[in-house]
Amino acid sequence: MHKVFKDLEGLSERGIYKKNHIEYWLLNEELRYKALSKDFDILEKEYPDTYIRGLTSLRNESMFLGIYEVLLEVIECYNNELYCKKEVAIYEAIKQDKHDLEAWLQRHKLDERKKLLRFNRLFQNIFTVSGYEFLIREPLCIPVTIKLDELDFKHSVHFFNILNQEINGNRRTNKGVK
Q1: What distance in Å separates the CA atoms of residue 103 and residue 150, rounded to the nearest whole number?
Q2: Which residues form the domain of 102?
């Protein structure tokens, strides 16, 4: 299992992982992931009261599954970048029209909550200037430092900041009216 982590570590360029590096590793490790997932599912059914991923004897396998699953989520965030860029452009075009802006916000309050929560869970860090840090910290104790280029997510950061600002701003305005 250590070779798998070393292979992942070897894919970074100057300590930064790009989308194509992550996709390459995920593709190479897909069969291992499916087999281990199946094994863990069987163990979870046989021992329903035991947290299988917490077993010391399966630590490396659990870590591999966790890293694989987190990197799948990272790829989803990469894939959302074009969508976020488009939505920022729409926002810029309609932000002065109260009716269009409210309709846009209503749509995103419902549609984007899951994406926003995933993005924040993966990258939010209130101790940085931008509020985000593109360093994968889960699963805990991973043997590889997975750092991503913040510029790869600039449209997502902008889009989610707009949503947060507009939604929180509207809440303050609505509270003041009541």
Answers
A1: 30
A2: 2-177
